[in-house]
Amino acid sequence: MKKTLALTLALIMLMSLSACSGGGDTQSQADNSSSSQQDESGRSKATEFTFELAAEEERTVENLIFDEDVTISGDFGVIIFENCEFNGDIINTAEQFTRVVLPDGTTVNGNCVFKNTTKEATMDYPMPKFISSNTLNIVCEDCIGSGVLESTENDMIFNGETYSMADVEFFYDADTNEIVPYEGQDASVLFVGQWWENGEKVLQMFCE
C-alpha cells in the first residue's frame, strides 16, 4: 500500500514538473515569435498605409517598415516618420503646407511624390514639402511642391535632375525676407521648389 502511494505521488510530481516545463517552452516560443517580428533596428511591418492629417496636427509615426506606397493627405499638418523604412513611394497629396519629415534613421527606397491639383502660386505660397537631411528623390510633375534638404553635404533629385550646393546661385536672407545672390554666406539648408506663375513654370533653388 505504501509502495503504491509513493509511486502515485512520484507520478503526480513528474507530471507537474512536465507541465511547468511545457509552459516555459510555450512562453519562450511566444517571446521569440514577438521579437522575430521586429528587425535589428526595432522596426515591425506596417499595416496602415494612409495617413489623413487635421489642420495644425503634428503626428509622429515610428519604428515601422512600409512595403507598400504610403499616402499622406490633409492640409496644414505635419507628419514625422522616425526610424522607418519605406520600400515604396511616399505620396503627399496636400494642397497647402503639409510637411512630411524624414529624419536621420529613416530610409526611403522609393520616391517622394507630390500629387495635388494646384499649379498657380507664388514663392510665398504655403507649399507642401518633404523635409530630410538625407538625399531625396522627389517627383513633382504637374503640380506644386518643394523639397527641403537640411544638409549641404547631400544632394536632392528633383524630377530627375540632381541639385547640390554647387548649383546654388541664391541665398534666402531671413533678416530681410529677400532672395539675394549667394556669395558664400553660411548656409545649412537647400531648398528646391516648383510652381507656375501666369502659366509659366518656375523652378526655384536657393540655400538658407
Verbal overview:
By secondary structure, the chain is of the alpha/beta class. It folds into 2 domains: 1-36; 44-207, no CATH class. The chain contains 1 helix and 20 strands. The chain has one helix at residues 2-36; strands at 44-45, 50-52, 58-62, 64-66, 70-73, 78-82, 85-86, 90-92, 99-102, 107-108, 112-114, 129-132, 136-139, 145-149, 156-158, 161-163, 170-173, 178-181, 190-197, 200-207. The strands form 4 sheets. The chain has a 7-stranded mixed sheet, with no helix packed on it. Strand 17 and strand 18 form a beta hairpin. The protein is globular and about 50 Å long. Keywords: Signal. Residues 26-39 have a biased composition (Low complexity). Residues 1-21 form the signal peptide.
Q: What tags apply to this protein structure?
A:
208 residues, seven-stranded mixed β-sheet, 1 helix, 20 strands, signal
Short description:
By secondary structure, this protein is α/β, with parallel strands linked by helices. 17% of the residues lie in helices and 38% in strands.
Shape: globular
Mean pLDDT: 86
- Record field, number of beta strands: 20
Strand order of the largest sheet: 2-5-8-11-13-15-16
State the helix count. 1
Proportion of residues in helical segments: 10-25%
State the major sheet. 7 strands, mixed
Rg is: 27 Å
Structural class: alpha/beta
Distance between the termini: 94 Å
| Helix/strand order, N-terminal first | HEEEEEEEEEEEEEEEEEEEE
Q: Please indicate the percent range of residues in DSSP E strands (runs of 2 or more).
A: 35-45%
